[in-house]
Amino acid sequence: MRIVVWSAFIRSRRMELKQRLSQQLKESRDAFLRNPYPTYQKRLENLNKLESLIKAHQAEIIYAIEQDFGTRSISETGLLELFTSIETIRDAKKQLKKWMKPSHRHTSVWFFPAKNRVVPQPLGVVGVIVPWNYPLMLTIGPLVAALAAGNRVMLKMSQNSPHLAQLLVELFEAQFNRDEVAIYADEAEMGPEFSKLKFDHLLFTGSTKTGRAVMQSAANNLVPVTLELGGKSPVILDEKFDVKIALERLLGGKLYNCGQTCIAPDYLFVPQSRLNEVVETTKAIMAKRFRTIQHQDYTSIIDANAFERLTHLLSDAKEKGAKLINCIPNSEPERGSRKLPFYLVTEVESDMAVMQEEIFGPILPIITYQHIDEVFHYIAQRPRPLALYLFSEDKWIQKKFTQETLSGGLCINDVMLHVAQHDLPFGGVGESGMGHYHGREGFNTFSKLKPVMTQSRFALTPLFYSPYSGFAKSILNVMINRKIGNYESAIQQKLTSLLRIIGRDVS
């Protein structure tokens, strides 16, 4: 009896949630249809409100994220959440006029003097599913792109970000109409129902497994999706690059958010001859940075399930013959605070869980190699990663990795910083995702790039209306069999002169 009652309650709750989300989508779409092309001034106003909202509530945002994590470095939240979000807004404001401006395109000589252009047009209502690991930055980034493109937006926060979600709901409702921006804190069945909505575009950031489910739900309504997923992003250290510089940079990026970053370095290729040097240098660097995991800048693992998953990766590797090196030796894993020391894992094999799944934590397996071709072969045989990191000054090696490996992004002689470049697109390939955002690519993702052709009063196309004259057939023969090439510009100039002589408007 209890099971029947509970099932009925769940069905009722799901139906209520579905109706609530559908009603908001309708209100947002109706608002969009009343103003389908917001002016530059309106879009700029929205971006300014967004920037003011973040700046005015920095302390509350930092505290909310701290509550959700247990321990989250305040400085890292400032750097990786607040600063990056505000910089994204500033860049969008600076570039907005340029992004909105129609671009003129070439017109083939056969259709001259018609004019071609591409007009970026808002799509309508954009859905955004936000993960927990960078909950502010990964809310603001897609939101900025969608608002700059002139859309209405609905966002769903993660169940692991309840404090920040509740804060953002309150802040946004005070600054924006809900038909402009509607934010939802996660609740039971919210995710599946949200991804079933008939958005004009849906952006999801999260795991590959959940990304597949989101894409399947969206496909039922032919909703286009951008999937920002993850994967195992490799780091390659070559024979000659300075080990200390490489590891300072690698560890700096790896330890952001305690490794809970979709583009975090996942495993490291090291020349066999340099393995001991790498291990000892890592120990020395970590000894200077963290003497204990209780340091305020050493972030907690997000929840108990994630903590248990990471400790299982370590125990599985050890049972199968790997060597675990605790690089914060005065500390052991602490379930209460969900803090895990940074581990190197050597002597790894491909059947170990640590080499089978994205780590998303403070663990770095090391694979040794004799020749760089071994690295290419290994990477090529595995799912395409979201990022790839190469430490090498060798131009030939740099070129080879650029051209012969396929990843969402490539960063040479550092890690993760390519994502901080406003003018570079961000996105995965294959199992690490599809589509791009950031900068102009983000604006374009949430726009319909509408091709517009404007025919002039005088046109050559009537020559090719049926029935076809002998002259038309002769021209067609020239079109098919002769190369216009460099003569195209000259032909256009002569046609323009001819049309002016006979008094035709060529505009």
TrEMBL record:
This is Aldehyde dehydrogenase. The lineage of its organism: Bacteria, Pseudomonadati, Pseudomonadota, Gammaproteobacteria, Vibrionales. It comes from Vibrio vulnificus (strain YJ016). The keyword NAD applies. One of its GO terms (cellular component) is cytoplasm. One of its GO terms (biological process) is aldehyde metabolic process. Gene3D superfamilies: Aldehyde Dehydrogenase, Chain A, domain 1, Aldehyde Dehydrogenase, Chain A, domain 2. GO terms for molecular function: aldehyde dehydrogenase (NAD+) activity. Belongs to the aldehyde dehydrogenase family. Residues 26-451 form the Aldehyde dehydrogenase domain. The active site is at residues 228, 262. SUPFAM superfamilies: ALDH-like. Keywords: NAD, Oxidoreductase. It comes from the Bacteria.
